[in-house]
Structures are given as structure tokens and as C-alpha cells.
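pinned: reference chain
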Amino acid sequence: MHVLVTTSHGAGHVFPPVALAHALRAAGHDVLFATPGASCAHVARAGLHGFDSSPAADTEEIFGRLLAERGMTFDRFRTDSPTAVALAAELFAKTSLATVERTVEVARSWRPDLVVHTELQGAGPLVAAVLGVPAVEHTISCHHFRQISSRFGPWLADAYRRYGLDGPLPPAATVDTRPPSIVTYGMGGWPMRALPYTTGAVLPPWLLERPARPRVAVTLGTLRPQLSGVGELRTVVRAAGAVDADFVLALGDADPAGLGRLPANVRAEGWLPLTALLETCTAMIHHGGNGTTLAGLGAGVRHLVLPGGADDFEVAEILRRRGVAMVSSPDAVDTGLLRRLLADPGLKAAAAEVRDETAALPSPAAIVPRLEKLA
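pinned: its C-alpha cells
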């Protein structure tokens, strides 16, 4: 079976279907990713094959330009209002449109039996319709982006007509990686356990030892540090110095110099596999990114969410309502809040419940036979 996977640009869009792609490969199927521009590097690092679905246009530039035309920057862009949802629909529809021509061209040659597309990638359903094969949606979020993708029509209508089609068909199935108890509204999808992707790494010795006291992971993901650095963590770092716990700043390529002198119980690291770090942690402090959040839910840690933009605020509210998280702005974090994060029995119990719920979901390998039947 040939399976084409179409994604939008960015690690948060490319990484979610990687586990299913590897499960398909392990079952003997061929997988090809259609991913725009620089995001192809994420596919290659995951040991998978892909191609640039937008060689004639930079989808990241399109995204940034459309925001700039409205006087916005990505770090101020939010999706938690009707106006923002309409704007997000336009942004992702237009970046999807830039990938249609090349993706159809390659698909006609490669001839997939099935198309898997991430939630905000509008070319996947079109390609499936052109070829007459099933399209399967793959969630990438802790809520659901269908409120955005359902509005793609006005921007993609001409592309459908160009290929002799009236419009998209409903997906043949939706692979849903959200733990059921955090789902704010249902989709009737196929539940699948989220296995967040991280690149391979040689783990440092300290990460292979059980910590002597509680350990807290701190991360702002990949995009936020690129946009605004990590200086907003200064208040968190100062407060952490008076807490009886160890804090690990997983900063990736970000420069920690702006944080000043770190307390003895705070260490700054570069790239660390988040899943390996969380296995040793009691709690995590993060921005509310979907991949980061799902990794934390699977690990059973408590959350302190510092939302900044995009759908971070929606994710933070979902986690708060489920009882696994507290929510704060970075500059409001103090020692008392960090101590509560580690001591609150309600947070601990809810996090354990969601961990067990996640572990009980079908693995990506269990989804493969269902996809085979569709094709």
C-alpha cells in the first residue's frame, strides 16, 4: 500500500503523524510525506521520505505576510475568538493552496492508495478526491481544528473546480490522538495513543538516573524561543531557586544567557528528547503547544501552562478544566505557585488518570489494519 501524508509547515504539524507513518512502514507499506519547504528536514530527520510540496512559494512567508497585512505577528496571533478563527482559516487555506499543484503532480505519478492529512492541511482531501482514494484526517491538537478547516471552501473552491470537482468529501476516518476525557466535543474518530516524536539522541548519564527529589521540565517549544527568546522565563527561574526540586530548562537552540545566573537547582540544557526527560519528572512548565502537551499527558505529569499565542490559550483552558494544570502568565509565577504545582493532590490524581487513559488507547500499529481495509 502507498500512503501519502500531507502536512502544513512547522514541527507541530509534521511530527504528529510520524508515529503512524513508522507503524505503516513496519507493516510493509510505503509512506511519502508532502511537506512544504524547510519542514521537509523534519521528515528526513524522522527517517522518512518526503518532497517539497510548495517549491514555487514559501508557505511560511505567505503566513507571515498575511499576518503582517493585518498588523499582527505570529507571537500575538491567537485562535480563541470568531475573528481569529476566520483569519486562521484564511491563513491555512492559502498556504494549503500553495501546495496543491505539486502535490497533485507527484500523487498522480506515485499513485497512493490512501491519503492521510493533518487537520489544517487542505490539499490532502483535494488530492484524494482527484485520485478517487480515501482521505483520512489525523489530529494534531488537544482540541480540534475543524472549526478552522471547515471554512477553507472559499479559498480552495477554484482549485477543486480546476480539477473537475465540486468540493471535498468528508474524511473516510479521523485518527484522534486526544485522551477522551480532554475532548471538548466529539468527532466520531478512531482513537489512537499519541506517541510524540522526538529525534534520536544519546542520553546524558544524569537522565538515566532516578532523581533524588522532584524534577520539573521547563520548555517553550521550538517556535516561541525563535520569535522572542527565553527571557520571559526569568521570573520562573528566580522563583524556582527557593523550591525543593530540580528544574531542567529544555531550551533547544535558544541562548540561556538572558536568564542571568541560574540557581543551583536549575540547569539549562540544549536539545533533549522530551519524552525521555518527562519519564523522570513530576511536573512540567510549558507554553501549551500540542505536541508538548500530549507528551506530558502521556507521562502523567502535572502542568503549569504559560500560554503565549496561537491555540495555546485554548489548550491551557482544556487542561485546567480537566484538573491536570494550572495556568499563569510567566511574570506571575512565584515560589508559592511552583510549590503548589508539586504538592497539589488534585493535580497529581488527575494527571495519573489521564496517563492511564492515554496508555489504554490503541497504538499506531493497531490503526494500520483499519487503514488497510479502507484502501
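why pinned: Residues 2-176 form a domain with the Rossmann fold fold (CATH 3.40.50.2000). The chain has 16 helices and 13 strands.
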